[in-house]
Design a protein that fits this description.
It is a single chain. This protein is an alpha/beta fold. It has two domains: about 1-180 and about 365-380, Glycogen Phosphorylase B (Rossmann fold, 3-Layer(aba) Sandwich); about 180-365, Glycogen Phosphorylase B (Rossmann fold). The protein has helices at about 15-30, 75-80, 95-105, 135-145, 155-165, 190-195, 215-230, 245-255, 270-280, 295-300, 310-315, 330-345, 345-365, 365-380, and strands at about 1-5, 35-40, 55, 60, 65-70, 85-90, 110-115, 150-155, 170-175, 205-210, 235-240, 260-265, 280-285, 305-310, 325. The strands form three sheets. A seven-stranded parallel beta sheet has the order 3-2-1-6-7-8-9, with helices on both faces. The protein has a six-stranded parallel beta sheet with strand order 12-11-10-13-14-15, with helices on both faces. It has a two-stranded antiparallel sheet with strand order 4-5. It is globular, with a radius of gyration of 21 Å. About 45% of the residues are buried.
Length: about 375
Amino acid sequence: MNIGIFSDVYFPQKNGVSTAVKLYKDEMEKLGHNVYLFIPKYSKNYKRNEKNVFEFPAIKFLFEKEQRIALPLSTDIFKIKDLNLDIIHSQDPFSMGIFAEFMSKLLKIKHVGTHHTMYEYYRNYLPLIIRPTLKQTQRMIRNWCLKLDKVISPTNNIKDLLVSYGVPDDHVIVIPTGIDTEKFNKEIIWNLRDEYNILPEEKVLLFVGRLGQEKNIDFLIKVFHKVFHEERNIRFVIIGDGIEKNKLEELVVDLDLHERVIFTGSQPRENVIDAYKQADLFIFASYTETQGLVVLESMAAGTPVVALGKMGVYDLLNHENAGGIMVKDLNEDIFVHEILKVLKDENLYNTLSKNAINFVKENYSIEVSVRKIIDVYKNVLEY
């Protein structure tokens, strides 16, 4: 099968959608399919060494420098027809998603899309003068979904949300974004403790993700401040970058935690996986996750999770024996209680760690997810 994947984000951008697209492409190619990726060009100086990737001129999004707005004005447009695509799979409704819709109609190719992101919670990145209302954003999402031949949702929770917006129930298929579990079995190369002088007896709490307001990292830092008063041999490692970094660093200084909290900045994926495996506990309080890939990745590494149970994360941790503890509300004291309980109870910790690995392998491997996506393609092509 010849598959065209259209996305507005891809590596070197580090986020859940970039990871998902890379995993889709690699696994589909392992199965013998030809996968062609259409993305914005990241920068003039960034040289990509990957086959079947078509880059289009792009400009930086004014209000979020890591994001790109593609301008599909390239001679590569004329090459698309020669690829004989069987299916188009778009990952968002923006510049490349619009281009995907155009090519789908022009070439009469079926068009599937995945709803990765809760765009409603990202409106604050736009200035008020051009910021859509909540209703307008929901209408945009609904209209995009209705133009697709089928919508893929990572969780049942997100499917229910799309249905509430007016998307027909049978138009949405739930397929979790999988994890490449084999990569979590490799030996550790990046020694996090050596690099940041973390003592052997010190516990490590970990957060991985973009440093944005919706991730509630300031809440996690305040939680860590309280944990530190109960458990002195502990550090908090924050991996990622974003517009909130300066504010978060200031908060760390204000709370006198500058020797306890480590900001590593963005890291290569291999380093991130090594960090999961060296951490003692992963903590997460985002309320915008359609699935929460970083939560799954931590569990794949055998590192238990204490996380806010909203949206996609709820669908993960609501399962019995999932390998994590779900906190229902943003309550600092409850978070602190659950973190300390896991760290101090060795039997509980070991049980959560074992359950986490098994839960991901059995339910969220990339092999299982991609085979389900290919089945969606086949079903769409039959109509």
